[in-house]
Amino acid sequence: MQTFYYAVYNRKTEVIKDGLRTGQYTVTYSDPVAMKANISASKGSADLSPFGIDTQYTKTIVTTDMRCPIDENTILWIGKIPAEDGSVPHNYVVVRVARSLNSITYAIREVTVSV
């Protein structure tokens, strides 16, 4: 089991400048939460993938915590510790969730995010 951090999606707010709509939005997330789960070293072959061959992902996370709130809108810090001031950006996003009777498997993709 590895420790990683996740933040779930809160809301999207439209940016208003000088009383006018800009067409831009600001997305907010919860505070990062630490969690321990099994994180794969790299993606497996398509015949072993619970997500099919078209999903683009780099790793999987498997947990038996069926109450885990992670979904397709969640951001992750793997191998990094998020800072309170936001100076350490997330480095993974969840692209797919596969629930079974006793576990949840998350397909995750590495991303590059600037501060």
Largest sheet: 6 strands, antiparallel, barrel
Percent of residues in helices comes to under 10%
Main-sheet strand order equals: 1-4-5-8-7-6
What structural category arises from helix and sheet content?
mainly beta
> Using only CA atoms, what is the Rg?
16 Å
Low-pLDDT segments, ≥5 res: none
Q: Please report which band the strand proportion falls in: under 5%, 5-15%, 15-25%, 25-35%, 35-45% or over 45%.
A: over 45%
Q: What is the overall number of helices?
A: 0
Residue-averaged pLDDT: 88
| Total DSSP E strands | 8
Order of helices and strands: EEEEEEEE
- Specify the overall morphology: elongated
Distance between the termini: 29 Å
Structure characterization notes:
- With 115 residues, this protein is mainly beta.
- It has no helices and eight strands.
- It has strands at 2-7, 9-17, 20-29, 33-39, 59-63, 75-77, 92-99, 104-110.
- The strands form two sheets. The chain has a six-stranded antiparallel beta barrel with strand order 1-4-5-8-7-6. The protein has a two-stranded antiparallel ribbon with strand order 2-3.
- The chain is elongated.
- The chain starts with a strand and ends in a 5-residue tail after the last strand.
- The model has no long low-confidence stretch (mean pLDDT 88).
